[in-house]
């Protein structure tokens, strides 16, 4: 039986957001207001989710692991500090580019700098997620039962505002399998019907029509 994976869904959502931002940066004309506004909006979404995720890991997942296995969280916590510094520099550049564009000043040079800084960050962040989904996840399985891991996940989700929860789902739902979505929805339909209704509305909003239809059909068969 497959064990609870605390990082998988969030990391798939973040990889989706990181890839969207990377793609948009590569196509961006940094002297075009529409392009700049688009990357600024995507970048702010990404930074918000990265900040929330790192805080949830530090204060909940890694804190719980550290309490059971002192010293086990140091590698991930050090990674978070380093990545946060790089992320702050990227966000500062993003804001400066938007300000230059609003003034009608040339932002191409700064845009090229942002693209390279983000490319480096993107690669390092992906390696960080692999470490967490292998080494850290193994330590969690060795020290926690699945009910305990479910409880940790519940604590994380309970902190989200409705707006933040939907923002997460806008990136997670398109990045996970139909089976994962059906499993999530199926368990919620009876246990939390109001939440199920909201999630179905999000699925219809953020998934291609044919995929939503397939999920809806599978749920009716449960």
Q: Return the average pLDDT rounded to an integer.
A: 95
Q: What radius of gyration results from the CA coordinates? A: 19 Å
Are there runs of 5+ residues with pLDDT below 50, and where? Answer: none
Task: Please describe the biggest sheet, giving its number of strands, its sense, and whether it closes into a barrel.
Answer: none
CATH architecture type of the largest domain: Up-down Bundle
Looking at the structure, the CATH topology of the largest domain is Four Helix Bundle (Hemerythrin (Met), subunit A)
CATH class of the largest domain: Mainly Alpha
The overall strand count is 0
Distance between the termini: 20 Å
Count of discrete domains: 2
Class inferred from helices and paired strands: mainly alpha
Bin the helical content. over 70%
Q: Please, how many helices?
A: 9
Q: Which percent band covers the strand fraction?
A: under 5%
CATH superfamily of the largest domain: nmb1532 protein domain like
Order of helices and strands: HHHHHHHHH
Shape: globular
What does this structure look like?
With 222 residues, the chain is mainly α. The chain has two domains: 8-161, Four Helix Bundle (Hemerythrin (Met), subunit A), CATH 1.20.120; 177-222. 83% of the residues lie in helices and 0% in strands. The chain is built from nine helices and no strands. The protein has helices at residues 8-27, 33-68, 74-102, 108-143, 146-158, 162-172, 178-191, 193-206, 209-220. The two termini are 20 Å apart. The mean pLDDT is 95.
Keywords summarizing the entry:
Four Helix Bundle (Hemerythrin (Met), subunit A); 222 residues; single chain; mainly alpha
């Amino acid at each position: 039986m497959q064990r609870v994976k605390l990082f998988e869904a969030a990391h798939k959502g973040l990889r989706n957001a990181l890839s969207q931002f990377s793609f948009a940066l590569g196509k961006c004309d940094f002297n075009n207001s529409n392009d700049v506004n688009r990357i600024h909006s995507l970048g702010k979404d990404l930074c918000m989710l990265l900040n929330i995720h790192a805080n949830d890991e530090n204060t909940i997942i890694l804190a719980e692991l550290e309490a059971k296995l002192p010293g086990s969280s140091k590698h991930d916590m050090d990674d978070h500090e380093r990545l946060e510094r790089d992320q702050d520099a990227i966000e500062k550049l993003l804001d400066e580019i938007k300000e230059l564009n609003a003034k009608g000043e040339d932002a191409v040079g700064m845009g090229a700098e942002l693209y390279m800084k983000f490319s480096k960050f993107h690669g390092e962040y992906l390696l960080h997620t692999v470490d967490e989904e292998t080494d850290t996840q193994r330590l969690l399985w060795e020290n926690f039962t699945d009910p305990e891991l479910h409880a940790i996940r519940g604590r994380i989700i309970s902190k989200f505002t409705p707006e933040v929860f939907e923002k997460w789902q806008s990136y997670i739902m398109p990045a996970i399998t139909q089976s994962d979505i059906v499993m999530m929805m199926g368990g919620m339909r009876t246990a939390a019907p109001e939440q199920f209704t909201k999630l179905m509305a999000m699925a219809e909003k953020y998934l291609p029509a044919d995929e939503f239809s397939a999920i809806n059909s599978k749920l009716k068969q449960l």
